[in-house]
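Anyone opening a protein record will find just a pair of labelled lines. A complete record is shown below as an example:
=====
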Amino acid sequence: MRLLEHQSKRLLAEFGLSFTTATVVESADAAGDSAATLGGPVVLKAQVPFGGRGKAGAVKVADTPGAARAAAAALLEMTLRGHRVTAVSVEPKVSIRRELYAGAAWDTSAKLPVALLSAAGGVDVESAADVARRTFDPSRGLPAAEGRDMAASLGLSGKIASDLGAILEKLSQAFIACDGITVEINPLAETFDGTLIGLDARVEIDDDAAGRQKERLGALGPIPQGGTGREATPLEIEAQRVDAMDHRGVAGRLVEFDGDLALLIGGGGASLTVFDAIRRHGGHPANYCEVGGNPTEEKVASLTALLLGKPGVRKLAVIMNVVNNTRADVMARGVLMGLEKAGRSAADTIAVFRIPGSWEQEARALMAGAGVTALGREVSLDEAARRAVNHAA
């Protein structure tokens, strides 16, 4: 999950990292009032869950409150990558000597987190020739001394090298504590008095850590649904809450669509295969939703009831590949509990139930008792999708 800029700054500030003071507003008048309070030129930035805002015209500078009001009005009318801008940050314009970049990410080759530092920050950091890299122990983070060495390798010395060492140490601690995938400050600005301050921040957190990070994330407000390029719908937000109710398994990574066939489908490639097959056979999915990793009956039940509570949903298809880390009987009991919560009959609502693998016979027996004939591996994913579409017609 990728946080918005103001959420990323707030999260990283908890680890002692410094950023420009920003006010997040949702109207042009509020932007003008904020600019008047700050005094002097301000920068206004659309709050969207992806980068490249400057090149898209979603970052504006205003010298007066009136100009800030007009700039915010223009930003709040924008739609970027399908995401309607509903909030804008207003912060003072900083005079800077140079821009740098500092971050932490995962090095998939080394199978370790890696700290990154560049003396060239900003929108073109990806093309910077000189980037210092150093992997670090995920149990303790990057020591400040090693961060100073990284700065020295880029020709930086003295106070700035010492300050960068401390920043990289704090970033690495934030990366570990927050279950980060990417944590970065870009640009990290050096002002003319030698102070280092973050002008922008980006934090991406592992989806599987949502339960562990529940309290920390809850304090930041609604998190954009990852990968959709738009704001999360109320249904998607509620599904995130369901998934976070228990750390065990995945049941709630959901993207909403306009169809009438609710889907509970296995994660990874199988879920994409099933979703595409549903569409190919003429079905109209109400959602894409990954399930796996042996979620609890309660999570499955809550998610099932949530999906069936969506207006217009008529049928439910439960289709997974052969499972070994998920008990088919637990899924079956959860689905049946969810149907009961939703006041639905299993026989009338379940278009297809196909979960072959661990505890499959027990799942088949549960479904049979509810008037549903469960399918196994003798029926392909594509055929199961076709039957689901036919039953939903």
Notes: The longest strand covers residues 96-107. The radius of gyration is 25 Å. The longest helix spans residues 159-177.
